[in-house]
Design a protein that fits this description.
It is built from one helix and five strands. By secondary structure, the chain is an alpha+beta fold. The chain has a single domain (5-70), classed as SH3 type barrels (Roll). The chain has a five-stranded antiparallel sheet with strand order 3-2-1-4-5, with helices on one face. A hairpin with a 2-residue loop joins strand 4 and strand 5 (49-54). The longest helix has 15 residues, at 56-70. The radius of gyration is 12 Å and the shape is globular.
């Protein structure tokens, strides 16, 4: 099962690899599916691939829903 999650892009390397933050954790993701993504954008992450750019309000709402579902309402 694959879970998509909202993440924020904090950097993009010359090779197209994005540094992303989700839940306070930083990791890398591929931008192959959304090459137009920019630093500061919110996107959906699935299996290490950014699959869709999200409007900030939608990303905030999804992040809150994920926190609620996981029992972390901080």
């Amino acid at each position: 099962m694959c879970l998509t999650a909202p993440v924020q892009v904090t950097a993009i390397a010359p090779d197209g690899t994005a540094t992303i933050v989700s839940g306070g954790l930083e990791r890398s993701a591929s931008t192959l599916a959304v090459p137009e993504v920019r630093v500061g954008d919110w996107a959906l992450l699935s299996a290490g691939l950014l699959v869709r750019i999200l409007p900030p309000d939608v990303a905030t709402e999804l992040a809150a829903a994920f926190r609620t579902a996981s029992g972390d309402e901080s």
